[in-house]
Amino acid sequence: MATFTNQVVWITGASSGIGEAVAVVLAQAGARLILSARRVGELQRVAARTGLTPDHILILPMDVTQTDSLSSLVEQAQGRFGRVDYLFLNAGITQRSTVADASMADYHRLMNVNFFGVVALTKAVLPVMQTQGSGHFIVTSSVAGKLGTKQRSGYCASKHALHGFFDALRAETADAGLFVTIICPGYIDTPISLHALGTGGQLHGKLDANQQKGMSPTVFAQRWMRAVLSRKEEVYIGGLEKYGIYLKRFLPGLLSRIIRNRPGE
Ligand code: NDP
């Protein structure tokens, strides 16, 4: 059975929510961590929470939309630990606006953070894993990566795009000993809705009830760990909402009616 002991795990979106919880659980499991996000102060807070000594953790500030800086960050990661065993591509933002209200700038922003940023870092780390002859990409999609809901058109599109990209990457790299796990969370209790792109260029700025009633990030992180260690290709973690994925597959007309009749948030 695989373990995380001494494995090097690079986490994006590590300053909050899911990334933070996964960092804490992985530290308890003996991993060495690289933490990335934009807010350095929050990364330092998370690093302290993990309890890891400085030789086991590296804070690597990163804006995933600044793709020109990624190769230098990969060099720093390699310089420190000499390898990257797992890359958890988790940084993301969401949306709370209808198609009629969302601006093209919002759509570009959602795709730049949630899709192109992920693609760019994946391409930057891929040669490292190919040289190692081992490595595991884990990406945070969403239940919204498997179906479409109101006020999330750009978010859903960005998460759907991840599935095509990572299914293709899995097929291309399996023979080289690499793995890909796509994680689709349902509602997880994080502050993600605070920074959601709202209407008229404003941030949504509210904690949504669906998130607050969602799964605790720590419980999520424990399930995440089990799924990754057992090398699942795609996994759904959340409450009842995750069954929407099965409705979409087996009873799409019913799911369409349910979503149509639900309020936007
Ligand atoms: P949070 O808002 O708590 O975390 C988002 C993380 O992404 C933060 O660490 C943030 O760090 C980072 N981030 C955002 N923009 C950038 C950027 N441009 N460059 C680098 N890092 C960035 O939300 P969650 O933990 O909930 O979200 C994590 C992932 O989970 C996302 O991909 C989200 O889509 C997905 N997800 C969440 C669900 C939920 O219910 N919570 C459900 C389904 C999927 P910083 O601001 O410091 O840069």
Question: Which structural class is indicated by helix and strand composition?
Answer: alpha/beta
CATH superfamily: NAD(P)-binding Rossmann-like Domain
Could you tell me the strand content as a percent range? 5-15%
State the total count of DSSP E strands: 7
H/E series, N to C? Answer: EHEHEHEHEHEHHEHH
Q: Report the sheet with the most strands, covering strand number, pairing sense and barrel closure.
A: 7 strands, parallel
What CATH architecture would you give?
3-Layer(aba) Sandwich
Q: Please, how many helices? A: 9
CATH class: Alpha Beta
Low-confidence stretches: none
Report the bound ligands by name, code or SMILES.
Answer: NADPH dihydro-nicotinamide-adenine-dinucleotide phosphate
Distance between the termini: 41 Å
Overall structural domain count: 1
Q: Outline, from the CA principal axes?
A: globular
Helix content: 40-55%
Mean pLDDT: 97
CATH fold field value: Rossmann fold
Order of adjacent strands in the largest pleated sheet: 3-2-1-4-5-6-7
Give the key terms.
seven-stranded parallel β-sheet, 265 residues, Rossmann fold, globular, binds NADPH dihydro-nicotinamide-adenine-dinucleotide phosphate, alpha/beta, 13% strand, 7 strands
Explain how this protein is built.
- The protein has 265 residues and is an alpha/beta fold.
- The chain has one domain (8-261): Rossmann fold.
- Helix content is 45%, strand content 13%.
- The protein has helices at residues 17-28, 40-50, 70-81, 104-132, 153-173, 209-212, 217-229, 244-250, 252-261, and strands at 8-12, 32-36, 57-59, 86-89, 135-140, 178-185, 234-237.
- A 7-stranded parallel beta sheet has the order 3-2-1-4-5-6-7, sandwiched between helices.
- β5 (135-140), α5 (153-173) and β6 form a beta-alpha-beta unit.
- α1 crosses α7.
- The longest helix has 29 residues, at 104-132.
- The chain is globular and about 50 Å long.
- The N and C termini lie far apart (41 Å).
- The structure holds NADPH dihydro-nicotinamide-adenine-dinucleotide phosphate.
